[in-house]
Amino acid sequence: MKMSRGFLFLGFVLIMALYSDANPLASLSSPEDCCFSFFKGKIPPQNILEVKMTGPHCTQQGFIVTTPKFSSLCVHEVTTN
Prior knowledge:
rod-shaped; CATH 2.40.50.40; alpha+beta
């Protein structure tokens, strides 16, 4: 009886570990995903190679824009006018 309880507990822990959506590294701030100062100028749309949002853990939300000249420019908003 004790052996089956042990296997049951071990199986439960294994299932929880496999199906858990928790990410242990999510609470760590990554400076690469955050912006601390923002570019105030306009970026021509044809020069934008990639746009990604800053991480949810960042204190200031914005976008990180990649251009041929700059690997990462932080902006508050992206417009395609």
